[in-house]
Amino acid sequence: MAGRTESVLEERRRLGGWLPRKEAELIAFRKDLAKKARERAALGPRTSAVQELAMLIDGDPVLRMDLSRAITDAIEAGYELGYSSSEELMDIVDYLMTYAPRFSEASLIHCPLNAVLDWPMCMPSGYALFRDPVVNAKLRQVLNVWSGFLDGPHSRSYLNSSAPEGWLSPEAQEQLGLSQFVCDPDKPYWGFESWNSFFTRRFLPDARPVAEPENSKIIVSACEASPYNIQHDVELRDRFWIKSQPYSLEEMFTARERGLARQFVGGSVYQAFLSAFNYHRWHAPVSGRIVKAYHVDGSYYSEAESEGVDPGGLNDSQGYTTAVAARAVIVIDCDDPAIGLVGCIFVGMADVASCVVEALPGQQVAKGDELGYFQYGGSTYCLVFRPDVVQSFAASPPFDDEAPPIKVSAHVATAR
After folding, report:
1. For the L-tryptophan decarboxylase PsiD-like domain, which residue ranges apply (predicted)?
2. Nearest to residue 142, comparing CAs of 196, 198, 174, 97?
3. Are residues 130 and 100 in the same domain?
4. Average pLDDT rounded to a whole number, residues 262-282
5. Could you read off the pLDDT of 364-385 as tens digits, one per residue?
6. Strand 218-220 versus strand 411-415 pairing type
């Protein structure tokens, strides 16, 4: 099976730098994590949220079967997981509740839980398990616990200038472009109160100027993100689970907002993904009034079977995630009536990926104003336009995933 595994990995790529591209590095990480998790498990009980997830799966024969089969199938397919049972997996998840990410030039692992689940989640039983709403509700509780740790001072273990793992080391500074961000090298931890504070760092004033702020026809990028897909003539309901993953507006906005979704039928969707090294705040693509702002509960590790085995976790399922994953939806009624409503959908993919909405209904925003942010974890976003609004997009397929991302507040589309 090793030959098959190597062949699959050679054909598929991991986008955004959330996980290393070399499977050998992930194998070493998972084995080291499993060793540390076993040592931690011997010292005391699990975190309550992790134990509740374990009890849910252990107490439900279908869920227990799905997870056990997903693990077994992945191992039999030749993937080295570092664990062979749900009990061992739960110990690893528990250990990760106090895990602080380390910088690495060669093998950065930004999403450790995604690295642990990488192969079981794309086995036949894994597809079913990670779509289960009760499992996702428990996963949300687990991820909230980790987010609480990342919000606190104990998460700053690697916010230092020591190479090779410090996020403030010269190597990291260059890769992150830290000179563009608000920070103070003379303060402890450069002024960052927690890992999440560092992750959601802000640009210095004027580091990202807004493209033609007075020209309503110039629509700007809501995130610092690389283009992933553009689709026109989107439908209210479509088969988002098939190979092409067409956008399904009713699922994106949710059935309770069917009236809102109908206004975009026949329109265009622009989707882009964020890198692990990039800025993670969202900004208004147009000037106007916020008319909707809401969260949607959803999945965290659900993939589309149509994409086959995906080594990057959710790389190739990004269209699909807009319909099923946890996300935030913000709709702006543009001051330019020819543009009208613009939907902004910010999707959390893997690990914490908390979506924090700052701009609320009734608020007037100018193009480039902050709307909210991702609080760690992989992420992707969409801009949704009504029919005949967009004349052209600044980027066009095929997209080069090695190219620099489109800067936040830079020109991304031109309206008619």
Report:
1. 49-176
2. 97
3. yes
4. 92
5. 999 999 999 998 877 889 999 9
6. antiparallel
